Amino acid sequence: MKVLLKSDERQAEKFFIQRRNLDIGFSVFAKEPIEEGMVVACLNGEICGEKHVNNNETVAEYPAFYNFLNSLFFL
């Protein structure tokens, strides 16, 4: 579990998000080199673009969301 907590440290410093297409999610790029086998982030769920989120009624039932670098992520 400690490796997962460590992977979540300094996320905003390690990555930047650039939206290219509202249909397919977010383009995430590393700001620094990533070593082979290194855990960089933890995700439990589905990644989808803003267009899908706005058109999918079930997503509106998600309990929380937060703004990370001006992009919406739903939990």
UniProtKB/TrEMBL annotation:
Name of the protein in its database record: Uncharacterized protein
Protein species of origin: Caenorhabditis remanei
